[in-house]
Design the sequence.
């Protein structure tokens, strides 16, 4: 829990800006500053934001209100980002944030590929802060509370960029997440952007069958456990398969981890569909950006010496010094995995990300 005030100050600075720049590049600021504060680097946040400021564009104005009868027509329309933001800021100002989240989560899950998975990641970071001693859960808190407002901005971005993943099948196999990810086929043409790659999935041999290979979960608790296993598998796999597209493959782990972080705020009935959506997102990112050939073991770094807790602190310190927003977010997920498993495998992957992605600071 942040007691420095740095997170609220940073979010207030960021909420004057939109979720994208240059028409489609995501604003990573809210996610990165939350990870920095969470992991003990609050003192660096404003300097990081000063450096990141040139990557931000003003938030578009609202022009046409989102209505209960017309929201489906506005779903997936990036021209309506100002309208969606005004809608969710208003919703969280007048209702408890959990109530808004539970209403909209199942509406947005089918479009989890939105913005190359950045919106759901942003929502996951926001929910994590709100779950700190049930922060800001009273109706009306969103009108002035930066953390509740951040949830509103994240949900708005997701709604405006909603994008279904084509050609997926419901999990019905016997494979665990690691084996299932290894079975995801690669798209043929990787020269285009995320939407271009996603459009190739239905024509990729074996894609639908590979998405069905994951074992289904029989209970909400099993859904949570399989989702945690998926985050671990994707994080570990980055170390060996991230060299083809180091920036983009981090989302194979950070997107399902965002969903995992949100589960405690959701009713158990939504946990199974959340797992299924997270799986499709991770599988799609893997199909688009994972190397078909693993890196040799000789190329992989080692985790810092010492206990897992000490190694985790050092790895995140390296990520904070590195400064790239993807490295910071991925290291944050790696620390989650290390804390729950007692293993340094994800920390090795985070060090690998520091090596593969150029520093920003």
Sequence:
């Amino acid at each position: 829990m942040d007691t420095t005030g740095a997170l609220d100050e940073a979010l207030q600075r960021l909420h004057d800006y939109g979720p994208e720049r240059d028409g489609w590049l995501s604003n990573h600021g809210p996610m990165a500053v939350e990870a920095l504060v969470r992991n003990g680097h609050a003192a660096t946040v404003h300097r990081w934001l000063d450096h990141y400021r040139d990557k931000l564009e003003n938030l578009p104005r609202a022009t046409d209100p989102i209505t209960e009868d017309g929201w489906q027509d506005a779903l997936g329309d990036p021209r309506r980002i100002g309208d969606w933001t005004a809608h969710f800021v208003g919703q969280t100002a007048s209702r408890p944030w959990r109530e808004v989240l539970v209403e909209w989560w199942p509406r947005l899950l089918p479009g989890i590929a939105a913005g190359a998975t950045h919106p759901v990641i942003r929502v996951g970071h926001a929910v994590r802060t709100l779950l700190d001693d049930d922060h800001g859960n009273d109706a009306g808190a969103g009108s002035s509370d930066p953390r509740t407002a951040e949830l509103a901005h994240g949900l708005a971005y997701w709604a405006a960029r909603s994008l279904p993943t084509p050609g997926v099948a419901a999990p019905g196999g016997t494979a665990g997440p690691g084996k299932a990810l290894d079975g995801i086929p690669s798209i043929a043409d990787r020269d285009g952007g995320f939407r271009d790659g996603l459009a190739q999935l239905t024509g990729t041999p074996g894609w639908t069958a590979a998405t069905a290979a994951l074992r289904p979960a029989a209970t909400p608790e099993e859904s949570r456990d399989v989702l945690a296993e998926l985050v671990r598998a994707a994080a570990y796999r980055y170390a060996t398969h991230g060299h083809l597209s180091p920036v983009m493959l981090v989302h194979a782990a950070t997107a399902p981890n965002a969903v995992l972080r949100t589960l405690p705020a959701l009713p158990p009935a939504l946990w199974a569909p959340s797992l299924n959506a997270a799986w499709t997102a991770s599988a799609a990112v893997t199909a688009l950006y994972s190397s078909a050939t693993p890196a040799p073991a000789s190329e992989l770094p080692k985790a810092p010496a010492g206990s897992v807790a000490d190694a985790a602190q050092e790895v995140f310190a390296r990520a904070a010094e590195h400064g790239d927003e993807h490295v910071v977010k991925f290291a944050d997920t790696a620390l989650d995995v290390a804390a729950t498993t007692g293993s340094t495998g994800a920390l090795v992957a985070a060090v690998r990300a520091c090596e593969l992605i150029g520093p920003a600071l």
About this structure: The radius of gyration is 19 Å.
